[in-house]
Write a structure and sequence with these properties.
With about 240 residues, the protein is of the alpha+beta class. The protein has helices spanning about 15-30, 35-40, 40-50, 135-195, 235-240, and strands spanning about 5, 60, 65-80, 80-95, 115-120, 125-130. It contains five helices and six strands; from the N terminus they run E-H-H-H-E-E-E-E-E-H-H. It starts with a strand and ends with a helix.
Length: about 240
């Protein structure tokens, strides 16, 4: 009988969320400078939030279907000998919405008996095994017990993810503002020097690599014209004028 894979056991949720937060600065630094200076902060932040915010999975109780009902067997030892015991195996498909990676990561609050299930795109496969010709009510109770255990672990994950999502929004805003300030400061200095900037022969446009599974393109807007700082005169030029 297939028991399913152990959920919430493939790495720590806290470590994964911290790594995601650390990536935000690099991603913001890869945004086109003229776009960063001319597009409203909200429009810049929106696609970044879609990339980094994590949605806690929610199980769809009403969408549960029976995948299969099969006869099988389990092995046991009786009087020193191994025997096969016939059983009934029922597989349920439980749809869910949200970020599937949460099912793989261990929250900070946990027990040493994580629930078992197999993970597919948009659904969990949960298995019930018992004696031949079981009472249907016993199967339903067994399924509900497993669902309750999974929801308990998701609840533990949700408390960490809520804090993380708040940090994501704050960090994106801070990084956008800091990057804009650095660019403006540098361009003001370039303008105040009064010399034309030499174009580098190796100048090129680079895109920041994104490894997260959800890759969100920046929303298209009207063509962005290059940002030009206001002209500035140093003190000597001002007195001469």
């Amino acid at each position: 009988m297939k028991p399913g894979s152990r959920l919430f056991s493939n790495g720590e949720l806290a470590v994964s969320l911290a790594q995601q937060l650390d990536r935000i600065a690099n991603v913001v630094a890869g945004v086109n400078e003229d776009r960063l200076l001319t597009v409203p902060e909200h429009d810049l932040a929106e696609p970044l939030e879609r990339e980094f915010l994590v949605e806690v999975p929610v199980l769809d109780q009403d969408g549960i279907t029976t995948e299969s009902v099969e006869d099988g067997f389990t092995r046991a030892r009786q009087f020193g000998e191994e025997v096969r015991i016939l059983q009934t195996a029922v597989t349920f498909a439980v749809p869910f919405s949200g970020d599937r990676s949460v099912f793989a990561l261990q929250p900070s609050t946990f027990t040493f008996s994580a629930p078992d299930a197999d993970l597919r795109d948009g659904e969990l496969l949960i298995y019930w095994t018992g004696p031949l010709n079981p009472d249907p009510s016993a199967i339903k109770q067994g399924l509900e017990k497993q669902l309750a255990e999974i929801r308990k672990w998701l609840g533990w994950s949700a408390s960490q993810i809520e804090t993380y999502n708040q940090q994501v929004r704050q960090k994106i805003t801070q990084e956008i503002q800091s990057q804009k300030a650095r660019i403006l400061g540098r361009r003001d200095l370039e303008s105040a020097l009064g010399f034309p900037m030499r174009k580098r022969s190796d100048a090129a446009t680079y895109t920041v690599p994104v490894t997260r599974k959800k890759i969100v393109a920046v929303r298209s807007t009207d063509a962005v014209s290059p940002f030009r700082p206001e002209p500035a005169l140093d003190d000597a030029q001002y007195e001469a004028a």
